Amino acid sequence: MISKNTYGKKIAYFLLSYFVIWIVLFEFILPSNNFLPKPSIVLDSFSALWIDYHLFRNFISSVASIYVSIIAAYYFLRILNKSLINEKKGFRNFIFSIEWFSKYVPGIVLGFLLVYWFPHSEYVKYLFIFIVIFNTLFLKHMDLALRVKQEYIDSALSLGASNSIIANKVIWKSFQPDLMNHIYNSHIYFWAMLIIFEFANNGKGFGYIFRSALEFKDLSALIAMILLTGIIIFLGSLIIKLSKNKFFFWSGIEH
Hints:
MetI-like fold, 0% strand
């Protein structure tokens, strides 16, 4: 079996190889083409992104939208946890009916409606990405809450624990690591939804830069933004994973 360290090293070698091939092939052998720009031009494009594409304000807008919404959705779900667990089955069935729609109607459709109703609004972007994130966490919560081992609940009941304590101290604690894993695994999906929304809304954010680069046919800026977006998503995923390992280190339901 390949260890995680060995696997990570192999991935790093491949990524380095891609970068070297890009430099050799497109910097020296094929400097003029419409497929990939020279690496030196892409490096120069980062300054253009900063000045011409207003990278700083768009960076702040996108990053704040994602991570503020993740934190807000998580704690809002935490507040609702007791009520959701102790609700009747009819309410749960209503929630799972919403899940049916989410399987066949992409969430970005709601985003397009919001763009139509509130064109160029920055506030509606926060609303949209919060709804997207909360919806995925909400449905995951409902699934995990039904899979908590009954013996944990019975043990708490035998000790005289109330429904409130069971909901918050037993059930919620049981699947906190799984919920964090879900955030980690859905992280790139959240970013994809945000960028598509920003692209359609033509407001602030990374989607606006991608749209502008395509309109100006600025290939080097487009490649630079792809690289920058990948780095930011990687760092965000790393922070989420480290947070999960530090604060939610116990075994969850899906281990």
